[in-house]
Amino acid sequence: MVLPFSRSISHVSPLALRVSAWLGSSLPPPWIDVPQRSGAHKVLSSRSPCASLFFGMCCIIPHLFQLHLFIYIYFVSSNLSHLFNSFFASCHKLQESLLSSASGYSNYRGILNWCVIMLVLSNARLFLENLLKYGILVDPIQVISLFLKDPYRWPAACLVIASNIFIMIALYTERRLSVGAIGENVGIIIHSINLSTVLFFPVATLLMVNSVTPVGGVLALAVYTILFLKLYSYKDVNKWCREIQHAKALSMSRSFSSASRSQVHYPGNLTHRDMYYFVFAPTLCYELNFPRSPRIRKRFLLRRLFEMLFFMQLLVGLIQQWMVPTIQNSMKPFQDMDYSRMIERLLKLAVPNHFIWLIFFYWFFHSSLNFVAELMQFGDREFYRDWWNSETITYFWQNWNIPVHKWCLRHFYKPMLKRGMSKWVGQTAVFLISAFFHEYLVSVPLKMFRLWAFMGMMAQLPLAWLVGRVFQGNYGNAAVWISLIIGQPIAVLMYVHDYYVLHYGGEEPAAPVLLS
């Protein structure tokens, strides 16, 4: 039997949701047309609320089934599409390997950590091997005894104290020039004699006095070299101030006004206070007004002091424990001209020598110079740049020692260019004067002249040309590092070998003579 309302199901609209308002009443369903409510419909309208509820549910269930079927088909089709894309889509694309330069990948932090770990492990093995072979050779008392052996055998310290004479000569010469008491030509002569004496007086003293140790001689000559560069800059800057003064026809002196009380003008800078501030300041280039830091940071100062003391002890320990035995064991291969053993000794010496050089760089250029700068409130702390990223030899020499680079650029290279000389000639002259001072600091304390340091510095010119033309990028940086790691121990072995041959007839001494 077909129910009378079944023919109207096809006319059901989405408004069927309105059945929720009808389920509790006895009215006919809202989707059945009113004119059709006759006969059986009148019978249905007289039914109980339960029958009405049943009637409404029977009308909703088919539409719920249709909705569920539609949702099911939709999700099944979506999952099939996703599975199709997962199984049949392409898994390859155009790309470079990570270690290729074309990939643009730059995060090598893990490889860097691995290199550091391997470096620590390899050097730990070498250190343990050294201890097992030689025992503990570190003896701080031996270093201290070099300076406390005999108070009357301190010619190096006396040389350093005597340097104040040359400082005063430069100061009083500039004072006389500032008031016109002497002429410019006379001032040039006095400064020339004074600067020449600064260079050659300590040389004569070290060569005539036999009690000077090589270490003391190096320290004394280093002080006089720094003093020579400072006094040369002091002479030049004051001369420039006089030229400006004459050009403007103005008399400039120290200003005592509240607006510029901290500024110093020529000739108000010609004082003992100003002179000795420049002498002790961590710079080689003189200025009337240096940049000053606002205060002294005590924690920063203590950290730098701790680093200075720690790395000084570390340097002495590494030289005594690691470098001296390696050098002494290298003498026999040099005497026998055993080239394979010589190369082996050279490579063995390269590691401790380069490690000591890096520690010395940090100790001097970072810890020591920052300590002095903080103590004197010297504001310019650019003592070095990123020389470790050097891709050319020229870039390395321009950035690893900024005080010397600034002096060469200001007082030597640019004046040569103003005189009409070419850049190549200027660069060659800079390397020439650098080679002279390198040989000056090595040959005089050792009391022998072999020119190994001079030739090593002059060899930087063709090496710089070769690296700049042949190697680029990372290859250039590797070439710079190789020259630093291999070049220095070659010079060290040459000087030590010649020193042993000259002073001990080729026999290896029982003690590290370079420190005695």
From TrEMBL:
Q: Name one GO cellular component term.
A: endoplasmic reticulum membrane
Q: List GO BP terms, alphabetically.
A: triglyceride biosynthetic process
Q: Which residues form a coiled coil?
A: none
Question: What membrane topology is annotated for this entry?
Answer: Multi-pass membrane protein
Q: Where in the cell is it found?
A: Endoplasmic reticulum membrane
Annotated InterPro entries: Diacylglycerol_acylTrfase1 (IPR027251), MBOAT_fam (IPR004299), Oat_ACAT_DAG_ARE (IPR014371)
* Presence of keyword Membrane: yes
- Which Pfam family would be a valid example here? MBOAT
Q: Which reaction does it catalyse?
A: all-trans-retinol + hexadecanoyl-CoA = all-trans-retinyl hexadecanoate + CoA; an acyl-CoA + a 1,2-diacyl-sn-glycerol = a triacyl-sn-glycerol + CoA; 1-octadecanoyl-2-(5Z,8Z,11Z,14Z-eicosatetraenoyl)-sn-glycerol + (9Z)-octadecenoyl-CoA = 1-octadecanoyl-2-(5Z,8Z,11Z,14Z)-eicosatetraenoyl-3-(9Z)-octadecenoyl-sn-glycerol + CoA; 2,3-di-(9Z)-octadecenoyl-sn-glycerol + (9Z)-octadecenoyl-CoA = 1,2,3-tri-(9Z-octadecenoyl)-glycerol + CoA
Subunit structure, briefly? Homodimer or homotetramer; both forms have similar enzymatic activities.
Q: What is this protein called?
A: O-acyltransferase
